[in-house]
Each structure stands twice: as C-alpha cells, then as structure tokens.
C-alpha cells in the first residue's frame, strides 16, 4: 500500500483533530470527510484540502480507494458506521467509548475479527507521555505498592447535550470514565475485578436537558484491580452553567504520593519531604495515536488499544451503572 487513503466520519471537534493528524502522516491522505451537518463537512473539506465531502456515511464509504476509516461521531452511532466500514474491508480507528451498549461493542469486535481488519480504539491517553511516565513510576515502586489512584472534578452540564444522554453518549460514566478505566489498566498492569458506585443526576430537572434523557451525571466509582490497587473517580457533569470545582488527581502509595497536574506535570513526594518534578509531559497524544495506527496497518502490527480494550472499559462502566441501581458491589 503506497498511499494510505483515509475517510474521516464526523467533522466535529474530534473529527477535525483526526483529519489534521492524518495529514501529518507521511504517505497518508484524507480523501473523504463526512458529517450529517453539511456545513461542518464542507468547512473541514476546505480547511484540510480533502477531495470529497459527504453527509451520508454510506456514500462516503463508497468513495474510491479507501484503506482506513476514522470514526469520530457520538457513541450511539459508532457501531453502525464502524461495522459498515469493516464489512467493506477497511481498517477502523474509532473514538472512545467503543459504544454505549454491550451489544453494539460486541458486534464491532466480532465484525473486526470476521473481516480481518485492524480495529483501534481512541484511548489517546495511552500515548500521553504523562500516563507513560506514571506507569513507569508506579511500576518502579517509587511510592510503593499497592497504590490508590484518585480523580475528583466537577463541571457544568456539557454544552454538547448528546453526551449527557443515556442512549446517545452515556454521560460521564460511559463517555469520560472509560479513559480512566483504560489508563489504570496500563498504569497498574492489572485487570479490574470489582466495581462499586453511587450517583445522582443533578441535571435531571434542568431545562437544558428538556429534549434528552440524562444519564447519571454525578458519581463516585471505585474500581478494584487484581493487583490490589484501587482507582477512584468522583466526577460531575451536572453543575449549573458557570459553576465548577477544582480538580484533584493523585496516586497514593505506602512510600509517598504522586500529584498529577493537568496533562503536563507529575510531582513525586517521598518520605521526609523529598520532591521530584517531571514536566513537559503533554505530548500530542492524537498525533502519536494516529501515527501508531498507520504503522499498525502498514507493518501489520497489533494496534495499541483495540476493541477488546474498549469492551473492558465498557464493562466497568456498565458495572458502575448496575452498582448505582442495585446498591451492590459488582464483580466483573
Ligand atoms: N479521545 C478524546 O480525547 C475525545 C475527546 C472528545 C470526544 N471524544 C469522542 O469523539 C466522539 C465525537 O465527539 P466530538 O467531541 O467530536 O463531538 P462533536 O459533537 O463535536 O462532533 C460529532 C459530529 O458527529 C456528527 N454526526 C453525528 N452522527 C453522525 C453520523 N451518523 N454520520 C456522520 N456524522 C455524524 C455531528 O453532526 C457532529 O458534527 C465521541 O465518541 C466522543 O466521546 C474523544
């Protein structure tokens, strides 16, 4: 394959990021872009000098010569587009979460196996140097093990209301938490075994959500791993406009603490106040992710994060929702 020809489905925030990063890959070319919003499709076509713009994914997938498809649309439609692309023999990079339902995700994994195509999931944080450094630090035992990883944040109802909806995006438990469920697997080098969660829907009566069915938007999720480590996520996407909490993210161990600042910095404190700072860790994770996917196709190598990884994260999200409903700890 001399020139890797790519079709990008979705010309919103992430579709635009994909198109831009694909243009940086040597001997790759975005030949088609598609969005049901015609203006967005045309704007991206013009911005990135793409041959053709479509508003129907089926027509876009019929564009001649496609090798790979980037899917960057809401989670509820990941399956229909990804499966159609795989059935035509195209390699697929699909944004996270893999899907909003178990059946959709499973159908995508099956289609990739049956069609023998590469199927990568957009767990971009695997390509963030900060996450790679965290893994290295935790694995080196710098703060001892097991560790307890905490993230706490609260922001207002998301302007993209579809993300808050039970069927379209799955709210923060499916849309955002999956990044953490995946990166914890990488950092701990272990698999999740039990999940407990409690949550409420602060936006339930918000006029903003009048046309949607909001999923639980405010939650604390505890994920226990086989290694004995614990991940704790306390998130809200349900605050009123203009209201937000601070962010606390750190990793606690028997020998110290690692503070996670933004995407850029890690501060390690060990006994008696010894401090070590690592910064400039905010690498262009999307550029690396797309370059790695192109390499996996060209060199027939495994993808960094695939459908099975997407299903493990989705399994944890679904277990968290079940735990909220039943009040019980859920074994995976
Ligand atoms: N990896 C990350 O860091 C990251 C960050 C943000 C979003 N995402 C994910 O990317 C995906 C897209 O999110 P976004 O922020 O770009 O949303 P967005 O709302 O900015 O864009 C989505 C676009 O998809 C289009 N669309 C919807 N259905 C379509 C269809 N059937 N065919 C073609 N186009 C369709 C919409 O018109 C819209 O332009 C989601 O799965 C989201 O979770 C990932």
Structure characteristics:
332 residues; alpha/beta; Rossmann fold; Dihydrodipicolinate Reductase, domain 2; nine-stranded mixed beta sheet; six-stranded parallel beta sheet; 10 helices; 34% helix; binds nicotinamide-adenine-dinucleotide
Written description of the protein model:
The chain is an alpha/beta fold. The protein folds into 2 domains: about 140 residues, NAD(P)-binding Rossmann-like Domain (Rossmann fold); about 180 residues, 2-Layer Sandwich (Dihydrodipicolinate Reductase, domain 2). It is about 35% helix and about 25% strand. The strands form 2 sheets. It has a 9-stranded mixed sheet with strand order 14-13-12-11-7-10-9-8-15. It has a 6-stranded parallel sheet with strand order 3-2-1-4-5-6, with helices on both faces. Helix 1 packs across helix 9, helix 4 packs parallel to helix 5 and helix 5 runs antiparallel to helix 10. The site of nicotinamide-adenine-dinucleotide has 24 residues, from helix 1.
Task: Give the SSE map.
Layout: E1 4-9, H1 13-22, E2 28-34, H2 38-48, E3 52-54, H3 57-61, E4 68-71, H4 78-87, E5 91-95, H5 102-115, E6 119-122, H6 129-140, E7 148-156, H7 171-175, H8 177-188, E8 192-200, E9 218-225, E10 230-239, E11 248-253, E12 256-261, E13 265-270, E14 274-278, H9 285-298, H10 307-326, E15 330-331
Parallel strand pairs: 1-2, 1-4, 2-3, 4-5, 5-6, 7-10
Antiparallel strand pairs: 7-11, 8-9, 8-15, 9-10, 11-12, 12-13, 13-14
Helix pairs in contact: 1-9, 4-5, 5-10, 6-8, 8-10
Bound molecules: nicotinamide-adenine-dinucleotide (NAD).
Nicotinamide-adenine-dinucleotide (NAD) binds at residues 9-15, 34-37, 40, 57, 72-75, 77, 95-96, 122, 124, 160, 175.
């Amino acid at each position: 394959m001399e020139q890797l020809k790519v079709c990008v489905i979705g010309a919103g925030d992430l579709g635009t990021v994909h198109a831009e990063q694909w243009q940086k890959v040597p001997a790759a070319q975005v030949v088609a872009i598609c969005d049901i919003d015609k203006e967005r499709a045309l704007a991206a076509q013009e911005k990135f000098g793409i041959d053709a713009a479509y508003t129907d994914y089926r027509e876009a997938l019929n564009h001649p010569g496609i090798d790979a498809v980037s899917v960057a649309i809401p989670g509820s439609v990941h399956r229909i587009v990804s499966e159609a692309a795989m059935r035509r023999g195209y390699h697929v990079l699909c944004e996270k979460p893999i899907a909003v339902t178990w059946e959709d995700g499973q159908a995508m994994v099956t289609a990739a196996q049956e069609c023998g195509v590469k199927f990568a999931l957009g767990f971009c944080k695997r390509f963030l140097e900060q996450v790679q450094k965290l893994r290295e630090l935790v694995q080196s035992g710098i703060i001892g093990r097991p560790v307890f990883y905490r993230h706490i944040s609260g922001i207002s109802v998301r302007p993209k209301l579809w993300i808050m909806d039970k069927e379209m995006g799955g709210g923060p438990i499916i849309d955002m938490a999956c990044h953490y469920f995946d990166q914890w697997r990488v950092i701990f080098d272990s698999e999740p075994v039990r999940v407990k969660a409690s949550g409420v829907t602060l936006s339930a009566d918000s006029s903003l959500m009048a046309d949607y069915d909001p999923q639980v938007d405010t939650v604390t999720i505890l994920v226990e791993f086989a290694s004995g480590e614990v991940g704790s996520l306390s998130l809200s996407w349900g605050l009123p406009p203009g209201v937000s909490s601070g962010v606390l993210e750190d990793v606690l161990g028997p020998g110290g603490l690692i503070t996670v600042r933004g995407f850029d910095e890690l501060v390690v404190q060990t006994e008696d106040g010894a401090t070590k700072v690592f910064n400039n860790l905010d690498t262009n994770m999307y550029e690396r992710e797309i370059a790695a996917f192109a390499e996996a196709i060209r060199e027939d190598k495994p993808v960094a994060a695939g459908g099975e990884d997407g299903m493990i994260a989705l399994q944890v999200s679904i277990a968290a929702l079940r735990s909220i409903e039943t009040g019980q700890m859920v074994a995976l």
